[in-house]
Amino acid sequence: MSDAPPPPASAPPPTSAPAPSPRRTFFARLAAAVRRQDWFVVCLEVGIVVLGVVIGFQVTSWGQAQSDRAKEQTYLRQLSRDLAETERLADDLARTMAPLERAPRRLAQAHYLPEPPPRDSVIHWAAVAPAYWEISPVLGTAEALVSTGDIGLIRDDSLRIAITAYLEKARENIRGWGAWKDVLLRQTDEYGATTPVALLFAEWVGPAALDSLDRADDWMALAPPGVALPALDTDALVRDEQVHRLMVRITIAKDNMAINRREIAQYAAALREQVEAELDR
Q1: How many angstroms separate the Cα of 133 from the Cα of each of 99, 127, 169, 219?
Q2: What ranges does the record give for the region Disordered, renumbered to this chain (predicted)?
Q3: Opening angle at CA 168, ends 163 and 172, nearest 5
Q4: pLDDT band, residue 200 (cuts 50/70/90)
Q5: Chain centroid to CA 4: how far?
Q6: Is 220's pLDDT higher than 50?
């Protein structure tokens, strides 16, 4: 056995103390400065913290303002597209409705002519007099702005007011248009009960078209196949007092529906100009 002493045990490595947090360091420095009554250092430390907080709020506020401006511009671009589409739809509808609006007026005027108009004209007027197409303004973006409260993102006060006013005017005109449509439908029902619709339809579409119709469909079932329908007495239709009164009422209803349609388009055009003036500002 060796009498040599055993080798000394290796000492454990020193443990490193955790680094103090910046917050604790700040408070330690501040406490030390207060104990030394070094008020300059105290004010400097507090001032640095306050300035950092203020700058942080300013950066956050600037970032929020930038986000709000981006949302505002997105809304305005979409609103401009909605308004332009509303104008386009109104123009298309005006062109489509023009002959349908003239028809009942022409038939009402024909009642007073010394000689009845040409037969084909009377048949066309009588057939399309009750016809109409629905209005369809695009209100999605304006409604979203108001319903979600995002209307507050619009910086210009007058534009915010104009958007809200446009939405209310559009809804008012839609309601007005719907009320006059109900008048038109009531007159159409009475017109259908007064006029030989089967004869009128048969004359309007012509024999070739009648031969191709599916007679199983009720609205096309004018007569059994192979049975000739009598000719429509267009002179009697023009002179009929009840038909004349119905044409006058239908004309009035369609004229007022056209007014509502034009007002929607006019308000849309005015608002679009105002919206486009605010784009990219």
Answers
A1: 12, 15, 20, 19
A2: 1-22
A3: 145
A4: confident
A5: 99
A6: no
pLDDT of residue 1: 46
Res. 247: pLDDT tops 80: yes
- Among all chains, which residue has been given the structure tokens 């080798």? 7
Give the residue with greater pLDDT, 25 vs 1: 25
How many CB atoms are closer than 10 A to CB 107? Answer: 26
Token code pair at residue 13: 């490595």
Q: How long is the chain?
A: 281
Most confident of 68-77, 224-233, 241-250: 241-250
Average pLDDT, rounded, for the chain: 83
**Would you state the structure tokens that stand for residue 118, as one six-digit string?**
């040409």
Give the residue carrying structure tokens 């409260």: 149
Gap between the Cα atoms of 118 and 124, Å rounded: 10
Q: Which residue has the tokens 């919206």?
A: 275
As a whole number of angstroms, the distance between CA 138 and CA 50 comes to: 50
**pLDDT above 60: residue 24:** no
What is the chain written as a DSSP string?
Answer: ---PPPPPPPPPPPPPPPPPPHHHHHHHHHHHHHHTT-HHHHHHHHHHHHHHHHHHHHHHHHHHHHHHHHHHHHHHHHHHHHHHHHHHHHHHHHHHHHHHHHHHHHHHHHTT-SSPPPHHHHHHHHHHTT---------HHHHHHHHHSGGGG---HHHHHHHHHHHHHHHHHHHHHHHHHHHHHHHHHHHHHHS-HHHHHHHHHHHHHHHHS-TTSGGG--S-TTPPPPPP-HHHHHH-HHHHHHHHHHHHHHHHHHHHHHHHHHHHHHHHHHHHHHTT-
